[in-house]
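re: ur msg from earlier - yeah i can do the magnesium ion complex, just paste it... oh wait u already did. ok heres what im feeding in:
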Amino acid sequence: MIILRGIAVSDSIGMGKAFLFSSKPPELRRVRIPEKNIQTEQERLEAILTSTGKELAELQAGIYKSLGPEFADFLEMQIQTLSDPALLETCKRNISEAYSAEYAFSKAVAEIAKPLLDAKDGLFKERLADIEDVTNRVLRNLLSLPSVSIIDAPSDSVVLAHNIPPSEVVLLDSRRVRGLATEIGGRTSHVAIIAKALEIPAVLGVEHLLEKINGEEQVVVDAQRGQVILAPTERRISTYRQEIRDYAARRKSFVDSAKQAAITLDERKIDISANIEFTSEIDAVQRYGAQGVGLFRTEYLFLTKRRFPTEEEQYAIYSEAAKKLKPHPIIIRTLDLGGDKILPGYEEANPFLGWRAVRFLFDHEDIFLDQLRAILRASAHGNVKIMFPMISDLSEIKRVKLLLKRAREQLTHKSQKFDSEMEMGIMVEVPSAALMADRMAKYVDFFSIGTNDLTQYTLAADRGNERISRLFNHYHPAVLQLIRRVIGAGHKAHIWVGVCGEMAAESLGVALLIGLGVDELSMTPCAIPVARKIIRNVKVEELRRIANRAVEYSTPVEVIRYLRRELSRKYHDLAVLFLGSKDICYP
Ligand code: PEP
Ligand code: MG
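and the outut:
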């Protein structure tokens, strides 16, 4: 038995058989074959291409059934690539020059990919990821190596990886996968966000994980204690089985009893809404009793498809979500690609400081307008609001407003309906926006503070880098001062201010943010029952005093120590929440 430590990003426990995920392509050498083998080699390759095509079609049908069409259609392009007669012909020609099937195939694929690699327009480059995927799959089948996508993770498995790119993370199936552990990733990395959204126990940033694993053993992901246990003893397995049962029972009772209104003891109403990445999460939003969606991260739609969806595809998804949630609001955030959510072909040296979100969309106006029109059209079917991420300068607000105006005119021209009063807001997640919030407030209907990025940019600490996770702390007084400033500026301009970063899903965070005066908290759906319990048992006046004091401390450790002590003293019944773990998905 080996016990490894990491960063727990959700507080539950999972157990299953190790499933190693590696996106590394198989090693390949230029191998020559004897001339007499040419025909059998050609037949071998043709058979593998056919069987791989069948494997992909089965996979696609399975994903379609289990996760829905938005996840399944990216495989279409891979299936088409394999069934292209020109590919087979080129492969056969290469083999006739006495190359092995593996080498002949990768040489043929390199020819197909060449124009894409040379393409100036990045849009073509997204096809490269599919070509790489399908190439790896065929080569692995030719070499009889195990498969490499997370969609292949079997029932009751625990996924172990160095890192998982967002395009793979979206394929995690919570019905099959019992846990997740990686060597890379912090508390607010997008792997962490998805694991929480899917309610999969996860421990990230586990050093030397892959060196210690042989691939066949049982693994426990203990995200309560931040441990990964490889090959646990029988005794430990039975203890964990009991803990998993107890946890499920506790959780059920908590969720059942937590659907009352989110009103404080001194009668202040706080809006609790949900952060979602996939429309399939709307069921959870309703089950946990959220008052709507405060953040719909639409970039996952792009990542699951691995291409830019059309206006019609987006309209269908947004309007369906708006109808389901009506009369509650849904805040649709425009594409936030970049940072750690990079489409293949768009790699940069400093992605978090680079071509991210609106910066990317300003250079791709056609993609931006497709999304704006789709969101506007969806607003005719429910309570839709639009939100723009990564705003760092007032000129960007003016520019998105001009584009919105253009999108409205285009729709009016085609007699298409939309809500002409649709609210428009921005995420305040870059320090410059927080500092200029008083000026920006005049141009928007609301602010939503993104504490994940605001913390990362204020403290110059990469949110996904476990080496400096010690520095990444949203209770840092510098971050708290900015939050206080944004709330003050918003209220002065009579607009509402929410928080949609992970801080809103922590017990201390909920209390502190209410004390600082926020109007809305948006969080991963499973955190809602606990947040509601806290809200119903506190007084805003008392929290205001505590929050004002907290902001005056000099270090995050002092702030946390003070909040724990003061809040648990004041609210005995909630002490277990304030003194316990940070995350409140799992009371
Ligand atoms: C944030 O930055 O706090 C936020 C909510 O957005 P994301 O996590 O998607 O960057
Ligand atoms: Mg952000």
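cool cool. The chain is about 50% helix and 15% strand. ping me if u need the other ligands too
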